[in-house]
Amino acid sequence: MSMSTERHESVVARYLAVWNAGAEELDSAVADVFAEDGTYTDPIADVRGREELAAVITATHKQFPGFTFRLAGAVDGHHHVARFNWELTDGSDGPAPVVGFDVITLDDEGRIRSVYGFFDRVPSGAA
């Protein structure tokens, strides 16, 4: 494994921790991981800036209370780009109701500049 891949794995772990952060630590977690003008784009959201990012995460928590995001497979990264699969799960043994794939780009400080998200599986009526 290259040092570059380890760096990407670390950023992705911190990114997923942001999505799993509670309300009291969300703003500081977003500030730690995302560039100030970071963007997040998926099929249902297109936002810029830390405040809008936190709002999308908060809305997701309200839609899926008690669920957590987890990495599903390996992180693949090079230069300032990484891609990975994730699952949103309630911790049960059944299949995760939401599964997706994200591509992130990093700034020179190692913060996330942009996220491009794709949904592979969503519950009917969720997206």
Automatic annotation (TrEMBL):
Keyword Cytoplasm recorded: no
GO molecular function: isomerase activity
Name of one Pfam family that matches: SnoaL_2
Record key words, sorted: Isomerase
Domain SnoaL-like: 12-114
Record's signal peptide: none
Name this polypeptide is given: Isomerase
Organism: Streptomyces ruber
